[in-house]
Amino acid sequence: MNLKSVVSISVMVWMSIFGGVSAAQAASGDDAMTQERLEATLTPLLSGIMKADHIPGTAVVVTKDNRIVFSKGYGYADMEKQIPVNPAQTVMRIGSLTKSITAAAVMQLQEQGKLSMDKNINTYLTSFKVPLYKNHPITLHQLLTHTAGLDEAIYHLAAQSPDKVIPAGSFLRQYLDKQPPVREPGTEYAYSNAGVGLASFLIEQVTGGTLETYMKHSLFDPLQMPSASLLHQENDRNMAKSYQYQKGKYQEIPYSYLNLPGAGALSVIPDEWAHYMMALLNEGGYREQHILKRTSINEMQARQFTEHPDVEGVGYGLFRNRLKSGLLSLSHTGDIDGYSAKMELIPKYRLGIFVVSNAVSSGKPLRDQVTDAIVRLLPEEQKQAAPIVSTPSPDLEQYVRTYTIGLGPQHGWGKWFRWLGGRNFEVQSTGKSLLVNGVFPEGSGSEQTKTYIPAGTGLFRDKDSGDFIWFHRQHGPWKLTFIQGVTIKEEPPFVQQPSTLLAVYAGVGLLWIFITIIALARSLLRLMLRKRPHGPGHVGCIAAVFSVFLIGQFLYGNSQVMTFGYPAWYAWGFSSLPFLASAAAIALVVRTASLHRSNPAQHRLVMYGRYLLALLSFGYTFFLFYWNMLSIHFS
């Protein structure tokens, strides 16, 4: 046998051994994500969900390595004109997915030495400073991991037209002046639009230009994303419209304009967003361009904060989770004006999934059902993960109690949301697991009972969804944390419970309305009997003013406080009505005392009744003042 034959045979043997392994490895990922297999999986699934949940249009894009392996639109981008969704042409809003690309921009500037994750952010701010919580500075690391301790921002986050948009710097200055930080930075996760909005403003501070300009030059252009923009694109002929289904028909949702664009304003063509996913999965590179170094990509994807050592936690602009098979998953979601989006990355297979719709689901989000269906095609997902073994624990009883959720800011407008939407979670023990009953933050909106199995110290895992909760206590009441969600405390004393505060607000409010109705009925009766009409008097005026305020608050104030905020006539005029009622109460006290001095024989019960009503007026005004419902705030 000559040398050439020997070499040929050796090559064939080498290829059969090592080439076969490589082929098997490739098949394990590539064969699972073929156009045909994805089509067969997704088309019937989406057809059923979109019909059941009345979702007009959806785009799904799947990337593998450095290419798009699946891209398809379902339904309509414009119902009226019957324009179909085209993932290569239709522009969609992606909401908080913007936060991920904002984090990438921050990482770029860290590479350039212009920003540092661990520096006090006040070193970068020139026009205003962030108040400190007990002298603890805030860092970019904390802003990007939602652990900066900022108060919840819900007021005037967006405008209804471009001309009413507030520049990010002006918005943040007003927000921080009225709503300083509420907890020590780095200690607790609390999802924060204001935090990432502040991080994006730092980009403007250190570059000297607008966020849009930086993003376009440093990210959108290198990634070949010409459609991507943080500016309003309502008039773009390729822009999809969003809808809600009410009373048997689709109603278009108005476009909003964010004051913190870096937290959720991005619009983009789905196929172009896929370029960003490929960069995240290919060490920062897309084709010939590198937006980030490999070390920065690793930093974004690494666990930067976790609420419990046994859960994956968050990176920078990415949430870390483990699939049932144990595979690491990186994801982020976004919701804005009816648009609903999700990005999920599986680093091991360099697999990227992007789903975006122009309406939201009523139950389990469409985006989650789609990503779940795709990852189930992976080889590891075909294997059954080891079942979670539950063991009796004598310590389970310590978690059995009532926990109260009251979401809302601690300062500024909307403080009353902490009790207006308050609700309880009842925790019970079966000896081997915990039963938790309540309206879950990420649930369907109705009351549910879920079973959680021990998974670590104070850590429990939902036996169905795999979601974690964590019970913990440190020098105070017990807390229940929904991992990558919210932290709530055990039920407060009776006088501080949301139900008690709501009862005070509604009960006294109904009393004012009842007194107003009685006063009007008396006046109407005297008019019908052709008797000399009496004026409403101080009591009638007090009740009428409170009644008008409460009806206005119910019909307008509670719905408008979020997002767009109040016009000046409401914030400074209408919201001052209770002060007018208190002024009338002072006049009532003075008049009652004067009448008593001039006529000591006056009926004491009537006199004490007027004093009591005046006292109730003062107390109710203070109640409204304390909860920041008036033009002047307590906090």
- Overall residue-averaged pLDDT value: 89
Whole-angstrom Rg: 30 Å
Biggest pleated-sheet summary: 8 strands, antiparallel, barrel
Number of strands: 23
Low-confidence stretches: 1-27, 385-392
The domain tally reads 3
In the CATH scheme, the class of the largest domain would be Alpha Beta
**Envelope shape:** globular
Strand order of the largest sheet: 16-17-18-19-20-21-22-23
Global structural class: alpha+beta
What amount of the residues lies in strands? 15-25%
The CATH topology name of the largest domain reads Beta-lactamase
Please, how many helices? 17
The separation of the N and C termini measures 92 Å
Name given to the CATH homologous superfamily of the largest domain: DD-peptidase/beta-lactamase superfamily
Structure description:
There is one protein chain. This protein is of the alpha+beta class and 635 residues long. The chain has three domains: 85-331, 3-Layer(aba) Sandwich (Beta-lactamase); 394-492, Lipocalin, CATH 2.40.128; 502-626, no CATH class. It is built from 17 helices and 23 strands. It has helices at 3-30, 35-53, 98-111, 140-144, 168-178, 193-207, 211-220, 270-281, 294-301, 366-375, 379-382, 417-420, 498-528, 537-560, 568-573, 577-598, 604-626, and strands spanning 57-64, 67-78, 83-84, 92-93, 158-159, 243-246, 249-252, 257-258, 267-268, 285-286, 289-290, 319-322, 328-336, 339-346, 351-357, 402-405, 423-429, 434-438, 448-456, 459-462, 468-472, 479-482, 487-490. Strands 16-17-18-19-20-21-22-23 form an eight-stranded antiparallel barrel. A seven-stranded antiparallel β-sheet has the order 3-2-1-15-14-13-12, with helices on both faces. The chain has a two-stranded antiparallel ribbon with strand order 4-9. A hairpin with a 6-residue loop joins strand 21 and strand 22. Helix 2 (35-53) runs antiparallel to helix 10 (366-375) and helix 3 runs parallel beside helix 6 (193-207). The longest helix has 31 residues, at 498-528. The radius of gyration is 30 Å and the shape is globular. It starts with a helix and ends in a 9-residue tail after the last helix. The model is unreliable at 1-27 and 385-392 (pLDDT under 50).
